[in-house]
Design brief:
Low-confidence stretches: 1-10
Number of helices: 10
Mean pLDDT: 88
CATH architecture of the domain at 113-233: Orthogonal Bundle
Order of helices and strands: HHHHHHHHHH
Number of strands: 0
Shape: elongated
Strand content: under 5%
Structural class: mainly alpha
Distance between the termini: 117 Å
CATH topology of the domain at 113-233: Tetracycline Repressor, domain 2
């Protein structure tokens, strides 16, 4: 009789236990904490610089003034922004960037409106933005008084594109030449923003809080009528 060598059946291996979820490495946690502190410090410096640059001007404050106002350690401005000039440009870009962010979604709609309605919308928008961000007109008022690299930066990077975009429709509906448009432009900018950038004066003189919503809306409506004339039916 032939003898067969039968091997014993292999025992099934027990199922591998699921590995617990890997915990975040200490280095990764430390990096996130560092990034969080960096963002907070940058935000503090930008907030403090926005107020100081718009109220006292670039030459009226020092790096240490900004760091003290932000409540951060000495040397952190240079660490995060390299220089006061770089920080000033960041403040200008962010301030004008806020305006661009708010109006950009509406630009497609404006293309389909008649010229008067386009300009009326822009005037009302500028009034409301000036009420929410009076630092913009204060910054422009301070820098516009002197011929410096800062006013050239503001004009070339931010102001000129907006002014150029307004010139054609305003000239179309009012019949203005290029020289007359200069006057219209400064009438619009000054009248739209002064009541808000001079809010303490308005409160003292008339007992009126210029940032109340009904004041803002009335100001926008009156300015549209003054600059463009009454809306014809």
């Amino acid at each position: 009789m032939t003898q067969t060598n039968s091997k014993p059946e292999a025992k099934a291996k027990p199922a591998a236990k699921a590995k617990p979820a890997a915990k975040a490495k200490p280095a990764a946690k430390a990096q996130r904490r560092t990034q969080g502190r960096t963002e907070i410090t940058r935000a503090k410096l930008l907030e403090a610089a926005t107020v100081l640059f718009s109220e006292q001007g670039y030459d009226g404050i020092s790096v240490r003034d900004i760091e003290n106002s932000a409540g951060v350690q000495r040397g952190l401005l240079a660490y995060h922004f390299e220089s006061k000039e770089t920080l000033w440009k960041a403040v200008a870009d962010i301030t004008f960037g806020l305006m661009q962010e708010e109006i950009s979604p509406r630009l497609a709609m404006l293309k389909d409106l008649p010229a008067r309605e386009r300009i009326a919308f822009i005037v009302r928008f500028y009034v409301r933005f000036s009420a929410e961000h009076p630092e913009l007109s204060r910054l422009m008022s301070l820098e516009g008084r002197q011929d410096s690299w800062r006013i050239h930066y503001l004009v070339n990077q931010h102001v000129r594109p907006t002014a150029d975009a307004m010139k054609a429709p305003v000239s179309e509906i009012l019949g203005l030449d290029d020289r007359a448009f200069v006057h219209w432009y400064y009438m619009m900018v000054g009248a739209a923003s002064t009541i808000f950038s001079h809010a303490p004066e308005c409160q003292s003189l008339f007992g009126v809080d210029s940032h109340e919503q009904d004041i803002v809306d009335t100001h926008a409506d009156l300015l549209v009528t003054m600059l463009l004339g009454p809306d014809k039916p």
